[in-house]
Request: fold
Amino acid sequence: MPLPTATAFLSVRELGTKLRAQEFSAVQLTEFFLERLDRIGRELNAIVTLTRDLALAQAQQADADFAARTDRGPLHGIPYGVKDLLALKGYPTSWGAKPFAKQEFDTDATVVSKLHKVGAIPCAKLAMVEIAGGLGYRQANASFTGPGLNPWDKKRWSGGSSTGPGSAVGGGLVPFAIGSETWGSIMTPAAFCGVAGLRPTYGRVSRHGAMALSWTMDKLGPLCRTAEDCGIVLNAIAGPDPLDPSAVARPYRFPEPGETPQRFKLAMLKNVAQETQPEVRANFEASLAVLKTFATIEEIELPSLPFTETASVILSSEAAAAFEDLITTGDIWEMTAPEDHWGLHSQMVIPAKDYINALRIRPKLQRAMDDLLKPFDAIISPTLATVAYPNDVDWPEYRGKARLVSDIGGPANVCGLPGLSVPNGFGEGGLPTGLQFVGRAFDENRLLAIAQRYQQLTDWHRQHPR
Reply:
């Protein structure tokens, strides 16, 4: 019997329970998601490569393991996809850009290897904005696979640079996906596509085998249906790696239910939702009412420090160093977005003293943010000021005056802090909105505990596109 469509929107935990109850096999589940990836994923421009043969072989192994009563944990037999900046042996890794469409690597990325060890099944290399957005794109059509289309409305953007992971999880094409964030690339697609997205602390997850955009700001993390699923995936991919010196030798364990506190102390940025879209503001206020049933909330302000400027200089300087060859070879002219033809040129002329000073300033910013966060379990805010952008409108024109008065994205990313976005309602055009939590370094479990409690009291994570 074919699996019911509702299977596409079940959580990892729910799928695992059904697998072990033999309601379907890992092969059946994998074939179900492969069919959706092939049929719907291509409509959304979410697919670069289907890894069908590898997926079915690993699904057969998962079924054999279950038959032999070998269980590798909650991700055993669960299909997933990876953003196409992660190496997967035997398949192209395009980085979203035409010049690299056929490049292959002879090893798996560490994240892929770790997921293989716990029995997860890779089904697709998922689309992304070319060079992870590092060339300065300002439009949806910034990938050789086409603009990332939102599963809630194909006339809207799915959010970058992890366009494919956002579309694929939001559209029920995979139960979870691995994305990356340097500055907003997990939070944005999570909010726009109505799913949970976790940006781990810098260094929590190895980046070996991943494209480098900014060596000191890149993070890998999951997009999932629920906050709990994000914790389950992080449990599998976190930890040290001798192949990545930036991966910290610090243990991580996602706690079992009941191990985390039930009362929390949260901070809200002053007037943070004041200039957002009206529906975004209303949904945030409704979220505050839910949060107040199990947390106290205090209003705060960010320190008056150059967070955004420092983040911009570091990211732009490191991107220029990583992709200088695009200019010297002329490959820059093969990029899809017109502004990506020239964006890297301006980054190439940033003075070395500016980069060095930005690196010197960053520890001061990190100390200031840690001092701000010490009394609290998390800072809360809307994830974004608007719903997903239209694909045919200039983004600044669409946003207009809508903005977060105190945007936590720049400070959190330049300081390497963890963040989590979960859906919290719908706005203009019936499109999802997001609620964001940011915490102290290596405090992912606290964010996950707050979000899990929020999701126990709401059902926004249960909503999905028709």
Notes: The chain has 15 helices and 13 strands. The longest helix spans residues 352-373.
